[in-house]
Design brief:
This protein is α+β, with helices and mostly antiparallel strands. It is built from 14 helices and 18 strands. A five-stranded mixed sheet has the order 2-7-5-4-3, covered by helices on one side. Strands 10-12-11 form a three-stranded antiparallel sheet. It has a three-stranded antiparallel sheet with strand order 13-15-14.
Length: 401
């Protein structure tokens, strides 16, 4: 209730009583008289609408963080989620009253509260996917290339705090992105291993397995690190084995993982990961299109004995053209494509007019945010038909006749 032009408490009480009667209110319980602060209109405060769930989370975490640089749209991050921030307007006045009481008190005493400002704009939050697309670029600036290059790369290294100031993601989502890129915290900075350097490191590991007649299904981690330490740092060898393998953890294997000195750990290389790594290396080293059969032969020869190259290992990395003679394969990594959905589809259809469902899905999965589906994206941006030969669904661009 806002009362103007009242000089003393008794007159104020009478004026409030009159207003209550006009409003058919029986008593003055919990009546608060509002007046405009002498600094009214100072609009330093921004209002954000929170769901009950977010409100409880704010009470637990004590702070949320707004992130964004330059022309980027701001996002709000909790410890584990990212929210898009959307500006909304309302025709109703939103009064900001710092100490307004919402409790009902059985008293006819009046209290006066000041209105510090009024707003017609507030911000709405919508759960979205973390914007991790810059992370690869930022980390590649200081990719580890050997100890001899550490001084030259000094200015580009990033700590966790540095990355949180650049990347629009929660701390948990950022950590997930770092794990996905195979990053490691080395001397306090997050680093990835430069691709050619990592390829050389993996080649040394596989050559050592062959020389020692060690199975790729049971690689002694510590012995491998010690044997190769004059050629590459132990942390690089261990990172490679952990990126492309898993520690043997079965009950029987665990009994075998400890050597006579009681400190050895055994790793099993993962066929899918090793095949994908070498397949990408060969494709990325080749300009343009590659004869598919020749590529498959070179790819297979690069793998340890017992591993089999298969195109399924290159999901989201390569485009196969089976309509050409001979069949061709082209390097097309999903993480190099535009992050805007419309631009992504435009680029994909510039590479190939018609896409089968299984071929296009790997190039869309990283665009899916909370509550979204791949099928919804396809419905919005594609026209579908059925291939008469295979009876499978085929997609082409809505922008083309």
């Amino acid at each position: 209730m806002i009362i103007d032009d009242v000089d003393n408490g008794e007159s104020l009480k009478e004026a409030v009583k009159l207003r209550c009667e006009e409003a058919n209110l029986d008593n003055l319980n919990n009546t608060q008289v509002l007046y405009f602060d002498q600094n009214f209109g100072n609009n330093d405060v921004r209002l954000i609408e929170l769901s009950p769930e977010l409100l409880e989370k704010l009470k637990e975490e004590t702070q949320f963080v707004l992130r964004g640089e330059g022309s980027e749209d701001a996002v709000l991050c909790t410890s584990d989620k990212t929210y898009a921030v959307k500006e909304c307007t309302t025709s109703n006045s939103l009064l900001l009253i710092p100490d307004l009481s919402t409790e009902v008190t059985p008293s006819d005493e009046l209290t006066c509260k000041s209105v510090s400002t009024t707003n017609f704009v507030y911000y709405e939050l919508k759960l979205c996917r973390a914007k991790l697309d810059k992370l690869r670029t930022v980390l590649n600036r200081s990719a580890y290339r050997g100890e001899e290059n550490e001084v030259a790369d000094q200015g580009h290294k990033c700590t966790t705090e540095d990355l949180l100031g650049i990347i629009q993601a929660s701390q948990q989502e950022l950590r997930g992105g770092l794990d996905e890129l195979g990053a490691i915290e080395y001397n306090g900075y997050w680093r990835v291993i430069e691709h050619d350097y990592k390829t050389s490191a993996m080649s040394r590991i596989l050559t050592l397995l062959e020389e020692k007649a060690w199975s790729w299904e049971r690689v002694p981690l510590i012995a491998t690190c010690r044997t190769l330490e004059e050629l590459q740092p132990c942390f690089v060898t261990e990172l490679c084995l952990r990126l492309y393998g898993n520690q043997v953890e079965s009950e029987q294997a665990m009994e075998e993982t400890v050597d006579s000195e009681g400190d050895e750990v055994y790793m099993k290389l993962v066929e899918d990961k090793v095949c994908r790594f070498y397949g990408e290396y060969i494709l990325s080293s080749t300009a343009g299109k590659f004869n598919l059969s020749e590529f498959m032969e070179v790819w297979q020869d690069s793998l340890p004995e017992g591993m089999t190259a298969a195109l399924v290992h290159l999901r989201g990395l390569a485009l196969v053209n089976r309509t050409s003679v001979p069949h061709l394969i082209t390097y097309l990594p999903a993480n190099d494509l535009p992050n805007n959905p419309a631009e992504r589809f435009s680029y994909l259809f510039s590479q190939q007019d018609r896409w089968h469902h299984d071929d296009i899905i790997p190039y869309l999965e990283d665009l899916i945010g909370p509550g979204q589906t791949v099928n919804a994206l396809l419905l919005k941006h594609c026209r579908s038909t059925t291939d008469q030969k295979t009876k499978k669904k085929v997609y082409n661009s809505k922008m083309r006749s």
